[in-house]
Amino acid sequence: MLVHLLYASRAASPVTAATIDSILHQSLARNPGIGITGVLCHAGDVFMQVLEGGRTQVNELYNAIVRDPRHRQVMLLHYEELPERRFGSWTMGHVRLDRINPSLLLKYSEKPQLDPFAVSGQASLALLRELVATAQIVGRAG
Amino acid sequence: MLVHLLYASRAASPVTAATIDSILHQSLARNPGIGITGVLCHAGDVFMQVLEGGRTQVNELYNAIVRDPRHRQVMLLHYEELPERRFGSWTMGHVRLDRINPSLLLKYSEKPQLDPFAVSGQASLALLRELVATAQIVGRAG
Amino acid sequence: MLVHLLYASRAASPVTAATIDSILHQSLARNPGIGITGVLCHAGDVFMQVLEGGRTQVNELYNAIVRDPRHRQVMLLHYEELPERRFGSWTMGHVRLDRINPSLLLKYSEKPQLDPFAVSGQASLALLRELVATAQIVGRAG
Amino acid sequence: MLVHLLYASRAASPVTAATIDSILHQSLARNPGIGITGVLCHAGDVFMQVLEGGRTQVNELYNAIVRDPRHRQVMLLHYEELPERRFGSWTMGHVRLDRINPSLLLKYSEKPQLDPFAVSGQASLALLRELVATAQIVGRAG
Amino acid sequence: MLVHLLYASRAASPVTAATIDSILHQSLARNPGIGITGVLCHAGDVFMQVLEGGRTQVNELYNAIVRDPRHRQVMLLHYEELPERRFGSWTMGHVRLDRINPSLLLKYSEKPQLDPFAVSGQASLALLRELVATAQIVGRAG
Amino acid sequence: MLVHLLYASRAASPVTAATIDSILHQSLARNPGIGITGVLCHAGDVFMQVLEGGRTQVNELYNAIVRDPRHRQVMLLHYEELPERRFGSWTMGHVRLDRINPSLLLKYSEKPQLDPFAVSGQASLALLRELVATAQIVGRAG
Amino acid sequence: MLVHLLYASRAASPVTAATIDSILHQSLARNPGIGITGVLCHAGDVFMQVLEGGRTQVNELYNAIVRDPRHRQVMLLHYEELPERRFGSWTMGHVRLDRINPSLLLKYSEKPQLDPFAVSGQASLALLRELVATAQIVGRAG
Amino acid sequence: MLVHLLYASRAASPVTAATIDSILHQSLARNPGIGITGVLCHAGDVFMQVLEGGRTQVNELYNAIVRDPRHRQVMLLHYEELPERRFGSWTMGHVRLDRINPSLLLKYSEKPQLDPFAVSGQASLALLRELVATAQIVGRAG
Amino acid sequence: MLVHLLYASRAASPVTAATIDSILHQSLARNPGIGITGVLCHAGDVFMQVLEGGRTQVNELYNAIVRDPRHRQVMLLHYEELPERRFGSWTMGHVRLDRINPSLLLKYSEKPQLDPFAVSGQASLALLRELVATAQIVGRAG
Amino acid sequence: MLVHLLYASRAASPVTAATIDSILHQSLARNPGIGITGVLCHAGDVFMQVLEGGRTQVNELYNAIVRDPRHRQVMLLHYEELPERRFGSWTMGHVRLDRINPSLLLKYSEKPQLDPFAVSGQASLALLRELVATAQIVGRAG
Ligand SMILES: Cc1cc2nc3c(=O)[nH]c(=O)nc-3n(C[C@H](O)[C@H](O)[C@H](O)COP(=O)(O)O)c2cc1C
Ligand SMILES: Cc1cc2nc3c(=O)[nH]c(=O)nc-3n(C[C@H](O)[C@H](O)[C@H](O)COP(=O)(O)O)c2cc1C
Ligand SMILES: Cc1cc2nc3c(=O)[nH]c(=O)nc-3n(C[C@H](O)[C@H](O)[C@H](O)COP(=O)(O)O)c2cc1C
Ligand SMILES: Cc1cc2nc3c(=O)[nH]c(=O)nc-3n(C[C@H](O)[C@H](O)[C@H](O)COP(=O)(O)O)c2cc1C
Ligand SMILES: Cc1cc2nc3c(=O)[nH]c(=O)nc-3n(C[C@H](O)[C@H](O)[C@H](O)COP(=O)(O)O)c2cc1C
Ligand SMILES: Cc1cc2nc3c(=O)[nH]c(=O)nc-3n(C[C@H](O)[C@H](O)[C@H](O)COP(=O)(O)O)c2cc1C
Ligand SMILES: Cc1cc2nc3c(=O)[nH]c(=O)nc-3n(C[C@H](O)[C@H](O)[C@H](O)COP(=O)(O)O)c2cc1C
Ligand SMILES: Cc1cc2nc3c(=O)[nH]c(=O)nc-3n(C[C@H](O)[C@H](O)[C@H](O)COP(=O)(O)O)c2cc1C
Ligand SMILES: Cc1cc2nc3c(=O)[nH]c(=O)nc-3n(C[C@H](O)[C@H](O)[C@H](O)COP(=O)(O)O)c2cc1C
Ligand SMILES: Cc1cc2nc3c(=O)[nH]c(=O)nc-3n(C[C@H](O)[C@H](O)[C@H](O)COP(=O)(O)O)c2cc1C
């Protein structure tokens, strides 16, 4: 059973390139073996991530992520059983939100910042889809 | 929570280029900081304006606008919670209705004049969308 | 409130070019002032006309037309309140049905003649829309 | 082809019981022979009437009514081809609106008076249906 | 054109029975003459009110209410053109929320308190409808 | 923002009445203060629980539950933003599945045992709703 | 494959009780063996009949009926493949239309007479269903 | 009232080019005068024909065709009242099924032969529409 | 994953009470252990059976049934993944079709006999549901 | 009656090119004569096959396939009556899954392998359709 899980969290300490590298490194090491695909965004101290894969694998990973001390306030935004993946082409895609047009963020929120804690899960999902549609995700790996 | 508010009003005294400039100036000064986007139309002594943004911010601004002595008969035409903005590309776009093809006005009303007081909010909204679709809004600022 | 009224009638005496000219002349003189747009068709002794505009104006004109001695058997085919005009580009367009492909008439009726008295209002409306879509209306005047 | 026509008008002179009696008398004399059924309402100087029957018969009667000097401002509110009559049990039912609960009128209009000229045809039709549903029509004649 | 407007606000000073009496008194004095119906709720320092009636009348009243110094943070929750009133039986009904079952409030919000500022307009409207359906509105006046 | 979260897990050690009492005790102590309502089922070593409430509160509690050493394999079954609670009448209802008719379990799964790990989230949710509809939940507390 | 066929015709000579008896007699003799069910109506010189059964059987019977010299102008009104019969309880039910309330006929046609030649197949089918629903069919034979 | 009738039949004797010519000749002679359009297919001893036109005309022709000794087992496949013709461009189009790609026949039936007696009317209609869409009908005559 | 499988077959030799007893006996012995529920009908030499349960279990049983020499022409009528069982109350219900009202069979087929080979799977399923709804299934075992 | 049947199975012994050749050979020899079309996929020891054709023919073939000792665990994934074939262009197409992009498999399942036993029939059908759409089927034979 394929599921799609979207969550947000806040970094426990200021996010550096090394933090991101380390997370992406862990993801690329572990996700292919367990059939997980997805996308990781961050902006300021906010993370937002999609995880797609088998229901058991996604939940095991999510439970590990919930316990990860590098962030807190881990909050589910959307969860759904899916007939097919939507982000299946990324082992773990990465969006560099500092390079995103602010009006794209404004389209889905009150202020031109990423703030998934303030909007509905649908709005965050819509933003992610628009990022895919406008090819703003790096790290494609089929 | 994003909302979309559309209202009409009548100028308290004849509208001059200076009046419009002053309003647009105020809008460009204040709206970006509070995440408001929208479009302002006027024709003769009639104003019609869309305000989009956070529910609190839009209402605070609308309440200020209701009290503004430069116009009267401020009347809501449409109000809606929205998953995403429709006019998100304009800090405050401007439509010079004296340059609009009269048959566009006629399409949505009994006479070839802007008269939002006489038609349903849906018709006014449809006119605004056709103005966007036909690229008749100036002052784009993302 | 915009309405759309479609009716048919039969000429009281054989229709000449002068009859048509006189009606179109009256229409072009009066309709723009009262915001009426539409299309007039005729074929043999049959008239079919769309009137669009404010509800009051369309009804006043229709009541005048009902009393006009140049035709009889005035019969409503369709009447509807509309959010926007469908024939808003014609002060009073004119269709020269003698120049129409007979298979277009056949598509909507039992015989290849215009006979709105024998078919539903929807069929007459569909014929009119196909005339618009295939650009068979003259007298465009925006 | 069955049609349903709803119109409103204003009496040319103050309406007396005799006016109403005379109209109902004419209706009961003529309608059964031509298969017309319907309902007549009046309130103050306003008439509102439904006519149902064959398309030809309804239009002939409507054209006579348009010319009747006892009223003016005859205005169509609704017109529709129908698979079956809605008011088929009344040769010409009569609603004594002075006996109607004002809150029923208020439900469909801005003021607690019958004013079909100010509201959409749908609202007038909805009011008529509620009158039928609450058995406020007299003169049943199957 | 009938509209339905729902808003919330916060009292400028602690709400006493006298404040409520004075507002209801003003409402009963003015609303019938301008065809306004509706319901007023309050709980703690929060007001929530529905206004139904003609579009012009509702907006004039709302603009007066926006300016009323007895409350602040006046915020639109819902606004809609309606074919028929939903609260047409109350000149201005009143809900004593201190007598309401807390689980009814909990059903529509995070905490068992009235907090229209924190929930969508739809949720507030749903709560109001459940209050009507469970006959918790006093002051019926047809 | 109200959310509805449904998950399953397996007890880390055999479930005793004391385990259940302790969990229910904790729930009744903490949930009312944070506006959480829901239902807890267990059967053999399987737990299944619904949590409803504010998005932040539900996620904080869920993250605590994920870390609770008394169970493992915590797996999300369903997660949804809701306009209104479905289980709002229970601070934390309890279903004694050992008293449930086995054919009710069979209706939604391959074997007559509770096995949320083997069926879709929708099926588990449907079972829970049938438990509510057939009044098999104890511990009602409004 | 089950089909439903509805047709009308006009008797070649005045219909007597003997004509009807003879047709019903033939129907009851032949229809059960070939799995045909249905209803026969007549009024004046008009017949209207539903035939339901296997596609081959219904067509064979219809072709025989088309050739039957006792009537002419045999005209299909409705034909449909069906998942289940609608008139399956009648080997050949009979409606004595001279005993039917005229307002039932008026409901579906311009005049209070049975005239399937003048109305759509849907209207004739609707009349037949209302006859079934109001138990006006005799000759039930399961 | 326009109708669309589709039937199949089997030739009484082997079909020769002369049989087809004679039928098409009769059709072209009679159909235009009575406003009938359509398409005739044949394959082996099977005929399949669409007739479109006024309800009276189509039925008169169909009744003549039922009696035509050149074929037997005449069986209705589909019959429908239509707002507009689907085959209005052919006085009587002709499909030479021996030239059709067998996989087109296979798409709609169990064997790569035309066998309307074995499939639903919808499947035969779908085949005919695909023949039109792929321009496999000859004898276009507008 | 729950599935629902409906098939028909023909007995290899005349069906006796002993044959049925033996099949039901086998079913009651094996089905509960593998979570299979369903209904078995027979009439003359025709069997029709529903099997519901886990996808693997239903297919294993069906493959055994396909190989069972007591019948032949085993033919699938319907197969579907289901969120919940429809026949979950019967370990293996039994319908004595010789006691069924023939008009019930006639409702879904050309002749008043059970002939699932001649009708669509939907029709057979509809018959089965009507048997359940009219409580004609024996052997309830919850 | 056309049906569409999709099943999966596991090879009884390691699959060699000769096994596949032999099956395809049998298929090409027998299927055209009985009007069967379809597609055969295999990957590792898993087979997945679509069979389309007449209901009787597909079931006869499926029953033969169920008994074929070259594979076991034959399991239905999808079965449906169809108005038209979806794979009508292949006597028996063949997909060489070892040449398929793994991300296509991943899109529909938890791991990048073909595992129809673990996913719903809809997912397997969706994968097959994408193989058709992306032209990955060989052995086209019209
Ligand atoms: C924002 C964020 C996203 C993460 N995403 C993933 C991921 O996609 N895959 C992964 O394996 N680990 C991810 N991790 C790391 C896990 O939380 C955890 O550290 C990692 O899986 C540790 O695995 P381990 O059990 O091998 O130590 C993420 C961590 C953070 C903070
Ligand atoms: C038709 C009209 C439209 C206006 N639109 C805006 C606007 O979009 N943003 C804004 O800040 N002020 C707008 N204003 C001005 C406000 O009413 C008010 O004067 C301004 O916000 C005052 O701000 P202040 O509180 O800083 O004096 C508008 C005024 C009018 C008459
Ligand atoms: C078929 C027909 C169509 C007509 N259409 C129009 C029209 O579109 N506008 C118009 O003003 N008069 C139209 N007329 C003329 C009116 O019936 C009427 O003669 C005219 O409005 C008279 O105007 P008056 O009141 O100025 O004499 C039409 C007449 C006929 C017979
Ligand atoms: C408000 C109103 C409603 C009327 N309704 C009807 C009616 O339903 N049937 C009718 O025959 N005449 C009705 N009439 C009268 C017609 O206008 C007209 O006077 C009548 O049909 C004259 O018929 P006559 O041609 O026999 O003189 C109505 C008149 C008015 C003013
Ligand atoms: C919460 C609230 C609700 C009110 N509702 C109404 C109302 O329904 N009708 C009304 O006339 N005034 C209402 N008022 C009072 C108006 O704001 C305003 O004071 C009143 O209409 C003044 O009328 P005046 O112009 O006659 O002084 C309300 C005030 C408050 C604070
Ligand atoms: C199956 C299960 C269900 C639980 N449900 C709740 C609950 O509804 N509310 C709650 O406060 N704690 C619940 N708990 C307990 C929490 O996991 C955690 O122990 C508790 O909230 C600890 O609170 P503390 O932070 O006060 O120690 C549950 C634990 C388990 C194992
Ligand atoms: C209006 C009408 C309805 C008929 N209905 C039936 C019928 O339902 N069943 C039937 O067998 N014959 C019916 N018949 C008679 C057939 O047309 C035909 O005479 C009869 O089937 C002759 O059968 P035969 O071939 O046995 O002579 C009907 C005839 C008429 C005029
Ligand atoms: C398969 C088939 C199709 C026919 N199609 C038509 C047709 O479309 N139009 C037509 O007039 N006659 C058609 N006919 C011929 C009629 O059955 C009949 O012979 C013809 O209309 C005789 O006309 P008549 O009454 O002038 O002799 C067709 C005959 C057959 C066998
Ligand atoms: C019409 C028919 C229906 C059957 N239904 C069932 C059934 O529901 N359950 C079952 O276990 N066997 C059923 N059987 C018997 C199986 O075909 C098979 O004989 C039985 O499962 C043998 O089991 P065995 O492997 O234990 O010998 C049925 C047989 C027939 C002919
Ligand atoms: C995976 C698989 C797929 C098959 N597909 C077909 C097929 O499409 N057509 C076919 O005739 N036989 C197919 N067969 C072979 C049949 O199972 C069976 O062996 C064959 O029809 C035997 O035919 P026979 O009765 O002529 O010996 C397939 C076998 C396997 C194992």
TrEMBL record, chains A, B, C, D, E, F, G, H, I, J:
Sequence ranges assigned to domain BLUF in this UniProt record: 2-93
The organism's place on the tree of life at top rank: Bacteria
GO molecular function: blue light photoreceptor activity; FAD binding
A Pfam family annotated for this UniProt entry: BLUF
InterPro entries noted in UniProt: Acylphosphatase-like_dom_sf, BLUF_domain
PROSITE patterns attached to this UniProt entry: BLUF
Protein name per UniProt: BLUF domain-containing protein
